[in-house]
Design a protein that fits this description.
The longest helix is centred in the last third of the chain and has 17 residues. The protein is globular. By secondary structure, it is of the alpha+beta class. The strands form 3 sheets. Strands 1, 2, 3, 4, 5, 6, 7, 10 and 11 form a 9-stranded mixed β-sheet that branches. The protein is 18% helix and 32% strand. Helix 2 links the parallel strand 6 and strand 7.
Length: 293
């Protein structure tokens, strides 16, 4: 059992936005929950994790006396070249059992951002896990909630989850219908969405996990999905994340991402970090840390 209790959400989550050159990125909080697990694991033979300095720098990423994980679940809106792209679609109406029966808050966040369902022309899924896809279908009507949008997912995640026997129930509820309504585009790999927005492969958490790279006027940002799930992985990217489908590949991807984020001064947008998840990788006293904006 992963859950202790649901973290209450405010009535109207407030979105936060940043600009990367000519591109606007708006954080759309879907909610948060307190888990009774740590966000990272010390594998056998590895030194224990010193949680105190990580908690001091990221207090809203933890709860309780045992440094357990307060997981945030933030979607992002990217406005580029006249396009409106939503990255990931949260836990949906809920209740979502893995997050303490949490009910998603994306519609409230969209209203606060003056965003309607029909305003979105592209939905980009970083991967096909249930806390990233569940606002896709209105179960009352069976229709896509974003009526004008093309929905983008890596072919490998479609094959992996959809090819299971039986497929996961959530996949049949929230992903399969997108194909049936002919609004799903399966990506073979790195894909240009606009001249400023590119989907890049960041596998390990799932076989087809992708991140979204924004490049505009010499500035860059990276929306990383579950390739980076907690600030501890900025400081110690070699730690195992138990939910990765391929542990070794997930570690390799994290190491590469953290190196790139620091070396190229790329702004990070991390949906499971403390809301709104915007920040940079910085070095201090021989270690790298997440510094929130």
């Amino acid at each position: 059992e992963l859950i202790e209790y649901r973290l209450p959400m405010p009535d109207s989550p407030t979105p936060h936005s940043i600009r990367i050159g000519n591109v606007e990125i708006v954080a759309l909080p879907d909610g948060a929950a307190d888990l009774n697990v740590h966000p990272a694991f010390a594998a056998r033979g590895e030194p224990p994790i010193d949680w105190n300095p990580i908690r001091e720098r990221n207090p809203d990423g933890f709860h309780g006396d045992h440094n357990h994980w307060r997981i945030h679940n933030t979607c992002y809106l990217v406005r580029s070249r006249g396009r409106s792209i939503i990255v990931d679609l949260g836990v949906g109406v809920g209740p979502y059992p893995r997050y303490g029966d949490m009910n998603g808050a994306l519609p409230e966040a969209m209203r606060n951002a003056d965003l309607d369902w029909q305003d979105v022309d592209t939905v980009f899924f970083t991967h096909a896990h249930p806390d990233h896809v569940a606002w896709s279908i209105d179960e009352a009507t069976g229709l896509p909630r974003f009526p004008r949008a093309r929905h983008l997912l890596h072919q490998r995640d479609w094959d992996n989850f959809g090819g299971r026997t039986p497929p996961p129930r959530y996949f049949e509820r929230f992903v399969r219908p997108l194909e049936q309504h002919a609004v799903l585009d399966l990506l073979p790999g790195e894909t240009t969405i606009t001249e400023e927005v590119t989907a890049i492969e960041t596998p390990g958490h799932t076989p087809g996990h992708m991140s979204l790279l924004i490049t505009s006027n010499g500035e860059r940002a990276l929306i990383t999905g579950d390739a980076l799930t907690h600030p501890v992985y900025i400081t110690e990217p070699w730690r195992e994340f138990g939910s990765d489908a391929d542990i070794a590949e997930g570690i390799a991807t994290r190491k590469s991402l953290v190196d790139r984020l620091e070396a190229d001064n790329i702004t990070l947008a991390a949906g499971h970090f403390p809301e709104p998840g915007f920040g940079h990788v910085v070095s201090l006293e021989g270690k790298r840390w997440f510094r929130a904006l």
